[in-house]
Amino acid sequence: MKFILSRMMLSTGLLASAVANASNITLCDTTGCRTGGSVSATSNYAQTKFPIVLAHGMAGFSKIGPIDYWYGIPQDLTANGSTVFVTQMSSFNSSEVRGEQLLNQVQQILAITGAQKVNLIGHSHGAQSIRYVAGLIPTRIASATSVGGPNTGSPVADAISGVTTIPGVGPIAASTLSSIVNGFGALIGMVSGQKYDQDSLAGLASLTTKGAAAFNAKFPAGMPTAANPCGQGAAEVNGVHYYSWGGTSTMTNVLDPVDYALLLTQAAFGGKANDGLVPQCSSHLGMVIRDNYGMNHLDEVNQVFGLVNIFESNPVSVFRQQANRLKVAGL
Ligand code: CA
């Protein structure tokens, strides 16, 4: 009943005006995610029972804005029947600080919509944010989906943080380290235009192997077991359904300048499959939908501006399929 009420509110614009009064959250429609728009779905393929809430990763928004981080994705989900909210957290901060910011926004969304639960989807460091919220208020979370999430950390973060001895790689030469740092800086800078600051160091610390392990000890739900670290995690914990997918490509589109930056980070991985920032196995959480899409870390959210691998499933359709999976599961 409450979900039906929210759809009625949508049609009258009441929900949109309620969202306009809330900070950091944005309701999306088929033309974008501006407040006050009207919903006009063309199918019910992605019409989940509970609203979908998108949580971004480590990036600033001075260039692209919080909406276009998910390039074309909210619009497509909405056109196919989803109610979608985009949230905005600190570009760079610890998993716990960003998680607390998302928790606050999820509580606003629950209050505004009257929905019993929400479906959380987090990209990159957003994976830790959604796991934090699912861990604290599991009865209000239907699902948590990690997309390219560094759930057990990233060797790129290890290298930049000065942890120069990486499993499988050994000590990193200064010249190689400089290449990794430059690649990482270009990767983040290309998207955000942000400069490093104290918060970025906290964010980086959270993404090291050690930092991720400390977070996982507090929020273990959905993580693969220690005995099988590259296996799947529990599909459901405390009523929350956990899913994940990730990519294992770097250069996917010669027109995308970020792809060249991602090549620079490769030295950190010692030849192991990765998406330019996250190792294949680190992306695992709950039910692993697929961990080797021909996508790099930014392709996973259809960046930059839709420049992705034309020989792979389009990232937008992968999100649409996940919404349908949630719908079929009654979520
Ligand atoms: Ca790309």
What are the salient characteristics of this protein?
binds calcium ion; 8-stranded mixed sheet; 331 residues; globular; alpha/beta; Rossmann fold; disordered N terminus; 12 helices
List the helices and strands and how they pair.
Elements lengths: L1 H11 L1 H7 L4 E3 L24 E4 L9 H4 L4 H7 L4 E4 L7 H19 L4 E6 L2 H11 L4 E7 L7 H6 L4 E2 L3 E2 L2 H19 L5 H10 L1 H10 L17 E2 L2 E8 L9 H8 L22 E7 L21 H14 L3
Parallel strand pairs: 2-3, 2-4, 4-5, 5-9, 9-10
Antiparallel strand pairs: 1-3, 6-7, 8-9
Helix pairs in contact: 5-6, 8-11
Kindly describe this structure.
- The protein has 331 residues and is of the alpha/beta class.
- The chain is built from 12 helices and 10 strands.
- It has one domain (3-158, 194-328): Rossmann fold (3-Layer(aba) Sandwich).
- 38% of the residues lie in helices and 14% in strands.
- The structure holds calcium ion.
- Calcium ion binds at residues 252-253, 256, 258, 298-299, 303-304, 307-308.
Brief synopsis:
By secondary structure, the chain is α/β, with parallel strands linked by helices. The chain has 12 helices and 10 strands.
